Amino acid sequence: MHGESPYEIMFGPDICGPGTKKVHVIFSYKGKNLLVKKDIRCKDDVYTHLYTLIVKPDNTYEVLIDNEKVESGSLEDDWDFLAPKKIKDPKAKKPEDWDERATIPDPDDTKPEDWEKPEHIPDPDATKPEDWDDEMDGEWEPPMIDNPEYKGEWSPKQIDNPEYKGVWQHPEIDNPEYQSDDKLYLRKEICTIGFDLWQVKSGTIFDNILITDDIEEAKSSFDVSKIQAGEKKMKEQQDEEQKKKDEAESKDTKDEEDDGEAEHDEL
Predict the structure, then answer these.
(1) How confident is residue 69, by pLDDT bands cut at 50, 70 and 90?
(2) pTM, two decimal places
(3) What are the backbone angles phi and psi of residue 75, rounded to the nearest 5°?
């Protein structure tokens, strides 16, 4: 088995750095591996979690985490199994006189006579330094400051466009390449389970795999809440032990520093 090995379904969590924390649901269909188009978030804590994929004969699906539904929908809608039912009509074109501008500049609006003001003006409060030498320093000019009367570039006000027709919508037609398939859910006989693992940090465990056509059996086979309770209790104990160890090491370090300072004082 390798990265290019064919498979029917790939399902499970994928955590890679801070950006990738999702549940993969990939189906093989006519030689292609199709990824789910929805973003299904996985759990990223240190505890055990139960991931369940339910594929139904009506071409719908559900994804459960710890027996709680986190995603569901239609196989046809959420994967690119089939060509789209509708496509844009290749013969349709937007009319040349179609106006999509909701507003237009007011043709009767005129710029006020007092509008033109410079963006910067000489600082009226600035004075030439007493030690300024025109022969050595050149002719003194006051520094420029923002003009409080500057109004920016003038543009006419906007008014409703009487010719506005809305945003043109490209008409659609039935896609001649679309072919329905009511057996999207149907998989070949599945006799093998494989694990595709890539870990940069050890400690992740994958176990307890069940393939069944009984949804209630799948839900009742694993009581993940009991596993998590034991893990949380153990983690609290480990955290407490680590805390005591860190405090002891910190105290030892401080004692060594205090002894070193005492020896220095004696010298």
Answers:
(1) very high
(2) 0.69
(3) -60, -40
